[in-house]
Amino acid sequence: MTGHVAVLGAGSWGTAFAKILADAGRDVTIWARRAPVADQIRAERRNTEYLPGLVLPERVTATGDAARAITGAEVVVLAVPSQTLRGNLADWTRHLHPDATLVSLMKGIELGTTKRMSEVIVETAGVAADRVVVVSGPNLAPEIAAEQPAATVVAGTDPHRTTLVQGAITTPYFRPYTNDDVVGCELGGAVKNVIALAYGIATAMGFGDNTRAMLVTRGLAETARLGVALGADPLTFAGLAGMGDLVASCSSPMARNRTFGEHLGRGATLEEARIATRQTAEGVKSALAIRDLARAHGVEMPITEQVELVCHEGVDPRLAVDALMSRTTKPE
Predict the structure, then answer these.
(1) Structurally, what CATH architecture does the domain formed by 183-325 represent?
(2) Binding site annotation covers 282?
(3) N or C: which end of the chain has fewer CB within 10 A?
(4) 192 counts as catalytic
(5) 68 assigned to a ligand binding site
(6) Does the domain formed by 5-180 have CATH 2.30.30.100?
């Protein structure tokens, strides 16, 4: 791999991922939607809005011109909010190298279509599915920026491309594993955001470890049910892209979906929680899409259903807890 890498999106994870790539020996150009962010990265090698303590390596630069970032890139990393992907990618596709590997860092399900992010990429960019690679795992950006040891999963159907991306992001502090279960890795990343919202709500309501452990384990169970219905390998959900990501997103105060849930659990409205959190909590919109996806495949996802009701239909979190606890008993 000799060309530069484009990272489209200058949020916390896009910025941290650019650091990983540079530390692994790649030249990286970040595209930032807002010119001041690109200017600061270029002039100071900092992105103080998202990762204030990080000084980026010299191999990282930035631009507000997506075409400039993409042109000639062998690997194009997509790190924008999931619900904005389709519109952005429609504008970017004409600049892609004919054989570029497209890497998705996004953890969401598209509203309206209920498509996974790799499916949106294939459809919008008009590329073969084997050109898309998904990176998913317990990857909290501030910890990775501080070079704390972490691991992730690089999932794709083309072993050459997954190995290429694996090599491009292997550093002393970041350890990637390959996997061919794209469906399972994407669903694990998307649904854990919804479960983390529930975990945050429960935490803010004063519930203890028993309740939170119940949400993690039963949340994983409903994630796996949906995954199996869509053809995923159930073992994926026991790994980094499943249980690993879920534990990190639920247990860490840094995790934006958990934090968003805590605001809701303290009685904030959806808009108040959004303003307080300041970053995109993907689980809020994905809850609607995941609920629709589950219903279309006849899969019960009671935690997801209640999170959707709290977020979008104004249901009191206490009533949501009552609804979960009063469901008909059944075998585990």
Answers:
(1) Orthogonal Bundle (1.10)
(2) yes
(3) C
(4) yes
(5) no
(6) no
